[in-house]
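Morning, I've got a small favour to ask if you have a moment. The fold is given in discrete form, as structure tokens running alongside the sequence. I'd be grateful if you could look everything over and explain what you see. No rush at all, and the record is pasted right below.
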Amino acid sequence: MQYVDLDKIELKEIPKISDPDGRGNLSVVEKDFLPFTIKRVYYLYDVPSSSTRGGHAHKELQQFLIALSGSFDVVLDNGKARRTITLNKPDRGLLIPNGVWRELEDFSSGAVCLSLVSEEYNEDDYIREYDEFKSFKGA
């Protein structure tokens, strides 16, 4: 499998509508915003700051992560290099293509991570062992 250029994985601005009366903001993800149809939505919360989540890659699934509240780091690994991106704004998200190892860490108190994904849950799509991931990438 081809290596994903981690430098091309960037935060994506989510459209934000500010209320002129100062009642807060609204952000929306609509049908053509992501390069896939959303087939599953889940969120992580109450994650202790010392814990990590993720620790896997997907063969097919694409994922869009948003820090709805608080902050956390997403460590991306393409089999050759690693890159860390901090998510800390609810109007920015991170689009993670398939074939990229991801780990979520350094959760702040009250952090909520929303995940919009391209596929329904399928255990066969997961690569949960890093050595298996390296083999999958041909390293």
Remarks:
- The chain has one domain: 6-28+35-136.
